[in-house]
Amino acid sequence: MTILVETLRPLFAPGVMSARARNSTSFHSLLCDSKIGFFVNHGSGWWDLDFGEKDRLAGYLAYDSNRMGGVAFQSFETARVGMKDRLRVPWALIQAYYAAYYAGHAVLCIFGRNSKQLDSSVVSYLNRIFKAQANPPPQLAAGLHLIAADVGGTRITLSPLPAGKSHQRFWELFHSEIRRVSNDVLRLNAPQQDTQDTSVKLAALLSSMEGPQQHKGWLSQVRNEVQYKHERDVWWFTKKTRDPNANALSGIMNTWRADPMDIELSSLPDELTRFIASCTFLVSLCRSVLEEVGKHGKFQPPALAFPSLRK
User: Fold this and answer.
1) CA separation (Å) from 305 to 16, 76, 98, 263, 291?
2) Which domain holds residue 8?
3) Angle at CA of residue 264, ends 184 and 257, nearest 5°
4) Three-class DSSP labels, the chain
5) In total, how many domains does the chain have?
6) In a domain, 100, yes or no
7) What is the overall mean pLDDT for the chain?
8) Residue 308, domain member (yes or no)
9) What is the pLDDT of residues 174-191, one digit of tens each?
10) Averaged over 266-278, what is the pLDDT?
């Protein structure tokens, strides 16, 4: 097992390691299907939902990390195979992006964080619950919210994220949270070399993901350029009918089942290589943290049964 995730394990959300398969539950079920309910506390722009027991929150974190991890693996494996065909390179890049996006969600869940689009039905339900309690908080509005689990493992805090494009907001959140993890790991009671190497690697990931413009949504920007603007010279009608980097990109993508510490994130020759290396690292990191949960936790994440991981 990689030193990276072994070092990070103390920073996993408390509930993740204690989750059991029978308690696996979606976010909607966590809020709406339980007969136990939750206690609400609130402040300016945030709502605490205390479920009173770890199993329920652990079940949600396990469910979402596994769900997002599973679709990340399938999406990335499809992209990896597609990268070998020059006519499928554009869609391979797009699929690699979405795999990284899903993987990023799964990784944040492992650390007790996530972003959720709360629709009107969920918001209406929550506001009815809030109203029934003494001193009801201000009305919750539909939109993108940060979901943060507390260190005790029984409570989540909902707080609205700034308006804007959901992918951009997610990557801003991802950078903020991984930056926090990168700093927190240095304070762990662990071998200094391991904590330093882990912190440096996470910092290298964030730098790679920002691209040359140091833009936190750079991965999404590249995907948009390929998918909607038909740029980056990867479509057949552009000046490059063959992408000369396709074999190199495919080679990087082949490492997603390897130790993420071995994936190079600096001194890369061009932007597409940087893009693919970042996506590959994110998917590899997702796989590694789920394997760590499976090794030390109380359940084996079903996402790890993905065929390519059983070879």
Assistant:
1) 18, 15, 20, 23, 11
2) 3-303
3) 85
4) CCHHHHHHHHHCCHHHHHCCHHHCCCHHHHHHCCCCCCEEEEECCEEEEECCCHHHHHHHHHHHHHHHHHHHHHHHHHHHHHCCCHHHHHHHHHHHHHHHHHHHHHHHHHCCEEEEEECHHHHHHHHHHHHHCCCCCCCCCCEEEEEEECCCCCEEEEEECCCCCHHHHHHHHHHHHHHHHHHHHHHCCCCHHHHHHHHHHHHHHHHHHHCCCCCCCHHHHHHHHHHCCCCCCCCCCCCCCCCCCHHHHHHHHHHHHCCHHHCCCCCCCCHHHHHHHHHHHHHHHHHHHHHHHHHHCCCCCHHHHCHHHCC
5) 1
6) yes
7) 89
8) no
9) 999 999 999 999 999 999
10) 94
Mean pLDDT across 206-213: 93
CB-based contact 89:243 (threshold 8 Å): yes
Query: Structure pTM?
Result: 0.94
Query: Which residue has tokens 């993108």?
Result: 144
Residues 6+ apart with CB under 8 A from 214: none
Find where tokens 């394990």 sit.
9
The answer to whether residue 123 sits within a structural domain is yes
Q: The tokens of 82 are what?
A: 């597609």
Tell me whether residue 309 is in a domain: no
